[in-house]
Write a structure and sequence with these properties.
The complex is a heterotrimer of chains A (286), B (361) and C (287).
Chain A: H1 4-12, H2 16-50, H3 56-63, H4 67-98, H5 104-116, H6 119-130, H7 135-142, H8 151-161, H9 163-176, H10 179-187, H11 192-220, H12 224-229, H13 240-248, H14 253-285
Chain B: H1 2-27, E1 34-36, E2 39-41, E3 47-52, H2 57-74, E4 81-86, H3 89-97, E5 104-106, H4 110-118, E6 134-144, E7 165-168, H5 174-188, H6 199-212, E8 213-217, H7 220-228, E9 234-238, H8 239-247, E10 253-255, E11 259-269, H9 271-276, H10 280-290, H11 293-301, H12 310-315, E12 327-329, H13 336-345, H14 351-360
Parallel strand pairs in B: 3-4, 3-5, 7-8, 7-9, 11-12
Antiparallel strand pairs in B: 1-2, 5-11, 6-9, 6-10, 6-11
Chain C: H1 10-51, H2 55-62, H3 65-98, H4 104-116, H5 119-130, H6 137-142, H7 151-177, H8 180-187, H9 192-221, H10 224-230, H11 240-249, H12 253-286
Helix pairs in contact in C: 1-12, 2-12, 3-7, 3-9, 3-11, 4-7, 5-7, 5-10, 7-9, 7-10, 8-9, 9-12, 11-12
The chains are: A mainly alpha (286), B alpha/beta (361), C mainly alpha (287).
Amino acid sequence: MASAAETVERRRGISYRTIARLRHGSLRGIAILYLALMIALPIAALIDKGFERGLTSLREAFAYPGGKEAIILTLQMSALAATVNALFGTMLAYALVRYRFRGRQLLSAIVDLPLAIPTLVTGVMLGVLYGPNTVLGKALASAGIKVVFAKLGILVALCVVTLPFVVRAVQPVLLELDPAEEEAAQTLGASGWTTFRKIVLPAIRPAIAAGALLVFARSLGEFGSVVLVSGNMPFKTLTAPVLITQLASQFKPDQAAAVAAVLFGISFMVVLVTTRLVRTQKGRES
Amino acid sequence: MRPRFVRGAVRVLVFLAAFALVAAACGGGEGDSTASGGECTMAENPAIYLVGYSTPREVYGKIIPAFQSMWKEKHDGQSVTFYESWAGSTTQAQNVINGQRADVVVLSLSSDVEAIREAGLITYDWTKAPDDGMVSTSVVVFDVRPGNPLGLEDFDDLTDPGVEILTPDPAVSGGARWNLVAAYGAAMRGYAGNQEGDEAGATALINGIAKNILTLDKSARDSIQNFESGNGNVAITYENEVKTANEAGLPDEAVYPPSTILIENPAAIVDVNARAGCVMPVAKAFVKFLHSREAKEMYESVGFLRPTDLAEARKGDPANGFPPIHDLWTTADFGGWPALDELLFSIPDGIATKAIAEAAG
Amino acid sequence: MSDIAVPVAPRDAALRRRRRRLVRAGLLAACLTYLALLLVAPLIGVAWTALEPGWGVVRGTFSHPDVLHAFYLTAIITAITVVVTGFFGVVVAWVLVRQRFLGRGLLNALVDTPFALSPVTVGLACVLLFGRGGWFHEFFAARGIQIVFALPSMVLVTIFIAIPFVIREVQPVLEEIGTEEEDASRTLGASVTQTFFRVTLPNIRWGLLYGVALSTARSMGEIGAVFIVSGLIMGRTETAPLYIWRALEERQTASAYVVALTLAAVSIVILAAIEWFKHKRIREDEA
């Protein structure tokens, strides 16, 4: 029985190897071209524009009214969002995996909601509920808590938009964990917290870190929800992405590109570390 | 059955792709005129791309239909389509320079139109048009809560403790720059509790105002909306923004300082684009229309127009809601926008730039 | 020194059970409160605010040509993006998994890049490339083709944003299923195309559909990049999210909320698809 290779060879007279290589090569070429044109090219343009005058553009961007503060604020808020969602994300993942309750599927779907909702709509939603003219907003304001047009609003917006990340990172790891180990510890008299701390936490720690880093990277660049909710006040609630749009629309595209490149550099390193963490996790499991 | 599912899915995807590409191809190009090697034939239904700053969009909602019906009458029922874009004045100028199609621009500051001219897209002297190219005027006022509970009367009142001011970010908004220039100019002219010509006093006034600024929004419209949602107790803004708000049923109240600046907003044909799009006749007619009595009346109806003549503007039209101004002046009294931009808004040493940075730090 | 205590007596066990139940209740309460404050209540708030003025406002909003065009534009951009990223996504995933070559690691890292870039940055890069002074500006301007401040750039930036989704969902599936079935099919005489459509594609379909659903949702919601490149031309380059933003600025809050609610409703439908495909994908994993 002739193999496919022999049939092809006989029909075309070219070595099957060559055809296979051509096919592989053209597929690879398409993939490389696609990624080069769509991704590498824009990044190159960015770095080229941002640093065509060396570090001058970056320095000018920092001198822009509110520029330096915007970058610092963005880093702070992103780190905070990562921490908050690390905590709540882990709790949610634990509840979704270890507990059985009515509406568990629904809860899981709600957790994924931010993946589907446009970020601008998220901003609208938060404004509708916590805006200064709403019932809730006014009540909170009288207690001295300002959500919309304040830093807290930025944090809330970031937490909403990045909510699923830690949950989805931790869930599969928790699923793999054999509950028998925990049960054993419990029967031996360990408290719930000790069990969690000694058995569960070490296992899920890399996953929490990976999820939190993803939250951080995503928050650095978040625009749609923050722009509606923060008030974009320089020195107070102006974030780096909004700063970039301002610089870009004020005849300062080089400064915008410089800030954008720096932000990109930070998130890219974060994402690299995250993927490595995930790979190590998977490696440890296999 | 897996193969059937796959075949069906592929068919759906191919159909979607074809539909999307065809629709996209059809979506662009309607109403676009063609220019082929020197020949210029205007399309049957020409399209004018109008790029404007953020505040006058409502009044153009009236002006454009009026122009369209006037054109229809004069040109055998030909209908003109308008594509409008409204955003911050400087942003729009930059986008036009970057390639956004604009046949006519209507901006907040003449320096933004100048930028477009310097980029080579406007090749004629647009200030030769009637009124030096300006199509709308207004004055800087204070927008206060009903009854003016804080009794604000002049720019130095804004520096009182407890006053929370809303004004847009001058780095980003044309309106913000009008506001701060008004304050500085009034002080330099001997008002707002300052001696005439006292630069130190005028600088102190700007510093005092900056300290009381509650938030810097990204546009004039954002700023006044922020005020309306309950923040702050005064917004520095255009007279016409207060009137637009009143027309929308909001209780904004205007306080006119004794000395303030006449805001002059230019309109110009971006002739390079208009010629390339073969719509010069329409663009010319439209800008001419903006200077016409009919358009002026529409501007006035939303509080937009004080007469472009300075003496007339000072008198105002109290019967129609335009109070007289004690001391009205223009940017020309201070060397025009280039000089004012340099003095007040240059980074990092402009008076206003420094004041805001210090107030925030 | 161990911190696991000695085996306990039954009375303590009952106490322990009760404490566990309290912890569980507390944990669930905290989680539900978090979700309620951040997601559920705001969503209900939008629904109520949009529908409270009555059905007339809804009808009025949907009869406005700008609104209809905005939805249409969002749909077109999303459709093109999904098809392009879907097709090329499968190609890239295949190449990354089934081939070994120099630079594969770099290519892999490139795929993750859109996750690390603010959409605003993407828009800026597009203007830098195709706007005046950009590397490609002359080429297109000479041919009268408008890229920036027109539909093409809006599609390009949305594609950029959506690139990783299909690739990242198809890659692991391709790795898991291995090459056995495909090899078998080839040895039995099937052509490459036949093998792909009859063996590979059905095997990766749930991963693929999951990635497609995610990229659909992401494309539909894109605003940061589109805001910069669109030029905000009403009735021409205004997507649904951009319309909402403008309506809020023009004090037309009623129609802004109606459109926002519509987008939220559509995303919930897409969410259902996401959950369904995820579920099927996990099932397949277990099988």
